Fold:
Amino acid sequence: MSDSIRRREFLGTAARTAAAGSVVGRALSAAAGEAEAPATQPAAEDKLIWRNKQPTMTYARLGRTNFMVSRMIFGAGGVYSQGGSTRLLEMAIERGMNYLDTGRPYAKSEQTLAPIAKKHRDKLWICSKAGDLGWPGMKVKRSEDAKAARMYTEQLDDSLKALGTDCIDCYMVQGVQHDWVVTMDALYEAFEKAKKAGKVRSFGLATHTGVATICRLAAKTGRYDVVMLAINPNSADELKPTLDAMHKADMGIVSMKNVGPIRGRPQAFDEKYGDMFAGQKLSPYQRAYAYMLFRVGVHAFNTHAPTITILEENIKVPTLKLSKAELARLERRVLAEARGACRHCGACSQACPKGIRVADMLRSHSYLHNYRDPNAARELYESLGPDHADLCAGCRTCVAACPESIDHPAVISSLRVTLARDRTGGTPAA
Ligand code: SF4
Ligand code: SF4
Structure:
């Protein structure tokens, strides 16, 4: 049994008594027991798009899309990249989850999801993504606008076919880490053309590296309806101006990589702090997700839920009712737990004299140890190129550039041992 499965059960009292299925207002300005959703620009009731509204979920308006998104969304890439049963997704839909996150880079994910996407099409907002314009394998250069547009269009067509639908609600550019991709006119024109043809409703991007720069620029362009960004409690404060700009531009905001480095040993902080909630026990994961919803004010958090236990735990978070005092305690604890987490600033990659994609190495390490997903870890590691880790000279320039002084050479060295293919053609170490 994994550490994740052993996570402590939330007692559920708060969730059962929550104001079910409600649309809520502003983050943390609420009175006790009214942990609320982010400040977004109002929209007329008749403009709101509701799907799969259930009393066991809360919803927020996803920016100018006007879609009422469930505040927990289902990240299907990690769960279904290798195929498998969609029972977990069915369970989430039964509980009111209404946003399906997938993408071309996630191997078999779209094909696996096709039957359930078809069966529940009217209940789901389907978001998929084009790869190779960022993570995991960049295949365009700065001036290759026509190629980028063609790649977006072709991948959108492939996604439509794989998912068995004639329209995707949001088609994002995955893993954006270059400013010139954000502002590329040809890419947006490709989206607009597809939108006119009825293939897609809204435009978006996902970003894990240099997130402040990428998201601020995305807000400035006015082109992006939804952004999914890597953010955790350790980086939330410095990203606040960026989030404010995104709210001002009325963009939908979905958080991912919410938890920081906890997943490797989730019970560690419980031992340290003990129970702080009368009548409730929240796992470190629930606390981080609650922080994202009720303090940071994202519209929804994206979660990796590979087991029923984890799904059950995560799906309770949107309906938590926490008093102001409980929220204050939660905030202190979450910040302590997330201390030292990567802030996704990208400084380590930029600093490396050998051109090593250090931040991607760190993410691969996180997939391996925090998410317990060796396939995703290996896929990312191998996408960086053969022997990429071997380029590391151990100079520690990356460590000096990192605001958290993360020991990247140690991470790279451990990946080399764990994930590098045996040069003789034998079995990888793990
Ligand atoms: S220690 Fe390795 S990864 Fe870090 S800057 Fe030096 S060569 Fe690059
Ligand atoms: S420099 Fe540090 S905080 Fe920034 S992306 Fe690299 S590891 Fe993360």
Q: What stands out?
A: The two ends are 18 Å apart (CA to CA).
